[in-house]
Amino acid sequence: MSLCPELSFNVDHGYLEGLVRGLKAGILTRSDYHNLAQCDTLEDMKLHLQSTDYGSLLTAGNEDLTVSLIDHRLKENILTEFRCLRAHSLAPLSTFLDYITYSYMIDNVVMLITGALKQRDVAELLPRCHPLGMFDQMAAVGIARTPAELYCAILVDTPLALFFQDAVSEANLDAMGAEIMRNKLYKAYLEAFYKFCQESGGATKNIMCPVLEFEADRRAFIITVNSFGTDLSGGERSALYPSCGRLYPEGLRLLARAEDYEQVKAVADYYPDYKLIFDEPEAGSSRTLEDRFFEREVQLNTLAFLEQFHLGVFYSYIKLKEQEARNIVWIAECVTQRQKSKINNYIPIF
Amino acid sequence: MGSVFRSEEMCLVQLFLQSGSAYDCISELGEMGLVEFRDLNPSVNSFQRRFVSEIKRCEEMERILGYLLREIRKANIAVPEDDEICPVAPPPKHVLEIMEQLQRLEVELSEVARNKEKLQRNLLELTEYTHMLRITRTFVHSRSRNKALGPQYEEFQSIESDSAGCTGMQRLGAKLGFVSGLIHRVKVEAFERMLWRVCKGYTILSYAELGESLADLDTGEISTNVVFLISFWGDQIGQKVQKICDCYHCHLYPHPENDEERADVMDSLRTRIQDLNNVLHRTEEYLRQVLQKASESAFTWVVQVKKMKAIYHILNLCSFDVTNKCLIAEVWCPVNDLTNLRGALEEGSRKGDATVPSFVNRIPSNDTPPTLLRTNKFTSGFQSIVEAYGVGDYREVSPAPYTIITFPFLFAVMFGDLGHGMVMACFALWMVLTEKSHKRKRSDNEIWTMFFEGRYIILMMGLFSVYTGLIYNDCFSKSLNIFGSGWSVRAMFTDQQWTNETLQTNTLLILDPNVSGVFVGPYPFGIDPIWNMAVNRLSFLNSYKMKMSVIIGVMHMSFGVVLSVFNHLHFKQRFNIYLLFLPELLFLLCLFGYLVFMIIYKWLAFGARDSRLAPSILIHFINMFLMQGGDNTPLYPGQTGLQVFLVVVALLCVPVLLIGKPVYLYWLHRGGKSLRLRRGYERVRRVSEDDMSQAPAYADDEEEGFDDLMTSRDTQPKEVKTATVHTSHINI
What we know:
The complex is a heterodimer of chains A (350) and B (732).
Chain A: H1 5-24, H2 30-37, H3 42-50, H4 67-88, H5 91-117, H6 122-125, H7 147-154, H8 175-200, H9 202-227, H10 234-240, H11 250-257, H12 261-269, H13 272-278, H14 289-303, H15 312-336
Chain B: E1 10-18, H1 22-32, E2 36-37, H2 52-74, H3 92-147, H4 154-162, H5 166-171, E3 176-184, H6 188-199, E4 203-209, E5 214-215, E6 222-223, E7 225-233, H7 235-247, E8 251-253, H8 259-317, E9 319-321, E10 326-334, H9 338-351, E11 359-363, H10 379-389, H11 400-415, H12 418-433, H13 435-441, H14 446-453, H15 455-472, H16 490-494, H17 500-505, H18 537-570, H19 574-605, H20 617-626, H21 639-670, H22 675-687, H23 694-704, H24 706-731
Antiparallel strand pairs in B: 1-10, 1-11, 2-10, 3-7, 3-8, 4-7, 5-6, 9-10
Helix pairs in contact in B: 1-8, 1-9, 2-3, 2-8, 3-8, 6-7, 10-11, 11-15, 12-15, 18-19, 18-24, 19-21, 19-24, 21-24
GO molecular function (chain A): proton-transporting ATPase activity, rotational mechanism
Pfam families (chain A): vATP-synt_AC39 (PF01992)
Keywords (chain A): Hydrogen ion transport, Ion transport, Transport
């Protein structure tokens, strides 16, 4: 059995894989985006989305149509689908799906901490958390003063406790500390997830490892670029780099030494994939570095659907759906703010 | 040929609709279901079309109706649905009225519902509060009883004696605080743990489960709750406790200072709950009244709005002529219904008070019209079976009418049981007789709907099964002896073939038809019931049924092939007859037709007397392909010669089938010298008389399509051949 997991894959996960592939067929296509980009009002967008798989998502209820409502509904939609998948899943898949939620949980925790530092009310912050990363203890996060307290008192019961090995410190939490904690947690999370995928073997490993490697490298690049101008030293920085990417170890060492954008670019030049991303875009295109990373992520995730009998489709589906939500919200923003020139900056998926 | 055998003749028609009366005209056409509209602005986005705002209004109304129906269903009020009254789409001027009515209802409903919810929430809070007070009292009292201390500071005292070190806190003047409330049962453990961790044990939590379950108003779930009481010192810890309570979504209520206050609060709560219950009851009554009134016309509204939306969708397909102030629609309409179409338009114009009538203009078209096959409730089931294989082209011969007989009959050949067939027919008959009431029920059960849709098919299958069951003489797998068997055992004894001794010594006895009087004559209808007792019954029946299947199968296939002639003749493709139909038929008849001939010949030529000499047809058939006379004695003189001839003819058909048509078409459009070719061109031109320029275009298409054609022609005969060989193999 363990020799060839593909043989018995359908016993446990066949139904859900079929389901997710069916759902994937509902992801908006280029022509859908083309039509959406032509809309003049949100009402038009609603009308067009009605003809897609979203159906009456925006029609139900009689609140006024706003961008935040659209965003909220789209997130809710992802959540419903995810909950359905999670509720029907069996052993390796259920763990895999849990791993997907952890990243959102980390983001939520850090957002609440920074919110608490700015004396914001928890009730006001909660609705802005990503629904995929909701958990019970979340609202109490603001009580903690140091990461150690945060870990011991609040998060020890949550699945995030696993990732706290490096992040526990007695230093007081501030905005910078929260950010560092996020990256440490994320590093531990990515490495654990990577290990899990590697142990699954088979097609799951073949599909998920490149995606996670890319994710790790992206974080490394972004951390480096964002750290310019702050008092984060190279040594401290290198502690934050996830060690499961393709940059590890040589590229990470170079990144730790980098001091400006040009040097980062020089590091990326050693890797053909990242060279493409860092290359100056052709004139007229207003894509940011982040956009190009997203584009590459979408590419990698669409590849997951080419193979069968692996867990990667679930991860890819959620990520693609998230990107789709980002696209729709972007278009909706452009429509409401009458920024027609920027409307085409969405990232088409299929 | 009538419309039963072919799909209906269609024509492309342009409708000029006065913009004032277009709505009524379309409504009229929709009620009659006469025409299929073509989209005249395919390049326009759905939200840029003309009647988008009207469609939006319809959607708004649908939304309100959906809300209304949900509320009605929640209140358990039945919506009267009547199929007899089928409301037509409301005229545009009445739409606003309906809209207003709906909006008024929505506002009223949502207000009442909101009030009701507020009241319910209030009531829930009050009940929770009373429960909490009731249960915390027991906490306090149990503790005070344990320590037998005064009522004022009982908690404080007990804690003091419990944990050392808090006396210091007391000395510092820290205030003792209480937080009490309700929490979900499932969350208690995590809550307690976190409380302990965060407050480092400086709190005391006591909790007890609530006897009854309360419904959560947000989710509608019924959950068990737990009442808790937290005692703590100091403001800082108090804040933390407050935050933790918030994060676990606890419902907090103020904790009374002493017993008197508790009793007061309890009293006031009781009266308030009573009042609230009264008000709530009255609100519900009123809500029910409103819903009751709305439910009367809800069904009509749903149908009307749906029809209205459909009409605007159709109007969006039309193109708008600015100068003439009219809408132009292009529709496919059956030629026979053109007068009805005109009538409907007149009716529509009259209703819409148009000054200029809408009119119809038939336009020539080269597009292939849609296939229209009219069905009634009897034929629709068979038509859908045919459509499962594919919808025929325009004006192609429709196989559905023949299916009405062949499908149930072939089923019955396999089913073949009088009793079971009777049961089936009765079930189907019941469905047919009570179809009106079933239709009204509109069941959601998929399996039932499938049976119900196919009730006429099942009825036919049942009836045919009764017939074949009679032929097989099978009733619940037992034979019926109606006419008396044609075999007689007594004759064997009178003829001295058997004696009592033979009966005692042999376990198996064989009736010999050659002995006079044993076999009187064939059973008048079907299989002789005596076979029911025979040991070789199964092998006899199998052989018989298989031969019958081969005969029926070959006939069925030949019939299908013959039907194609009507298509070839109708589409004036005479070469198809020579290049497709004839070789196919020859192939079929030379091989399998001959097999049928042999089966029948064997039945006729061999009687009871020489049955031991009867050859195996299978061996003969196989030898025919091997072209060996072999050591078999021929069935009839000249058998070998005929068989060789038939096989050669069949083999010659194969290349014709494979490459005949493509080669002919290739030749037709490449050459131009031979006589046949000229005719081909003339034919092409005759087809497109009205447009001369069409002829070369046709030829161009042919050239490009040649390869495709080749492959498609290639596969078709192969399919035919494999299919025939396969079916006959199964049969044999």
